[in-house]
Design brief:
The structure holds 2 protein chains of 2 kinds. Helices cover 0% and strands 50% of the residues of chain A. In chain A, strands 2, 4, 5, 6, 9, 10 and 11 form a 7-stranded mixed β-sheet that branches. In chain A, strands 1-3-8-7 form a 4-stranded antiparallel β-sheet, with no helix packed on it. In chain A, a hairpin with an 8-residue loop joins strand 9 and strand 10. By secondary structure, chain B is mainly beta. The mean pLDDT of chain B is 96. Classes of the chains: A mainly beta, B mainly beta.
């Protein structure tokens, strides 16, 4: 069973930064694109960012473009999301998710359990 | 306001067949595959349908997907109480260069 474990969430003040991590196991990490998807409390799913297998192709939702940076370390099987200039509307459960192929536009086939980010003063 | 449009709620009685619609545009559903996800209360989403009509192993054949033009549908036959969940459609959007989800449909089994 594919394993995705997110960490790094917490309470942070508006304007500050936070870095999320996702440890991937039980599959060949560098054979697949990876994504971050978030879900605000009581709301639906929102795609945040995706990265191809070799980091050659990266995409962001307009709502986070210029503030968030996705990256991956294929040697360590880790996915990251650097979140800067955080806003109250970034408050959400952030899911790490595996793409179905190497491309950053691949759809998601597995999800982690999520890490909660709360932006509040 | 989600890019893909789903009804906010749907309901049915045990054994019934229900259908959930997902409406998009030429830049997403019209030109890319659609996936469907089931999110049980308090849990992470789970892939239900991929490439419009395909079921991952382990997903019962009571669940089926279809696509026509810029719309897609998820059908659940032989409804069971454990099917009560939120259901989301998703696709890649070529204009936005990003993934897009529907707003989700809360399915209630009466």
């Amino acid at each position: 069973e594919i394993h995705l474990v997110e960490s790094g969430g917490g309470l942070v003040q508006p304007g500050r930064s936070l870095r999320l991590s996702c440890a991937a196991s039980r599959f060949t990490f560098d054979d697949y694109a990876m994504h971050w998807v978030r879900q605000a409390p009581g709301k639906g799913l929102e795609w945040v960012s995706g990265i191809s297998w070799n980091s050659g192709s990266i995409g962001y939702a307009d709502s986070v473009k210029g503030r968030f940076t996705i990256s991956r370390d294929n040697a360590k099987n880790f996915l990251y999301l650097q979140m800067n200039s955080l806003r109250a509307e970034d408050t959400a459960l952030y899911y790490c998710a595996k793409g179905s192929n190497i491309r950053s536009d691949s759809l998601i086939d597995y999800w982690g359990q999520g890490t909660l980010v709360t932006v509040s003063s | 306001q989600s890019v893909l449009t789903q009804p906010p709620s749907a309901s049915g009685t045990p054994g019934q067949r229900v259908t959930i619609s997902c409406s998009g545009s030429s830049s997403n559903i019209g030109s890319n595959y659609v996936s469907w996800y089931q999110q049980l209360p308090g849990t992470a989403p789970k892939l239900l349908i991929y490439r419009n009509t395909q079921r991952p192993s382990g997903v019962p054949d009571r669940f089926s997907g279809s696509k026509s033009g810029t719309s897609a549908s998820l059908a659940i036959s032989g409804l069971r109480s454990e099917d009560e969940a939120d259901y989301y459609c998703a696709a890649w959007d070529d204009s936005l260069s990003g993934g897009v989800f529907g707003g989700g449909t809360k399915l209630t089994v009466l």
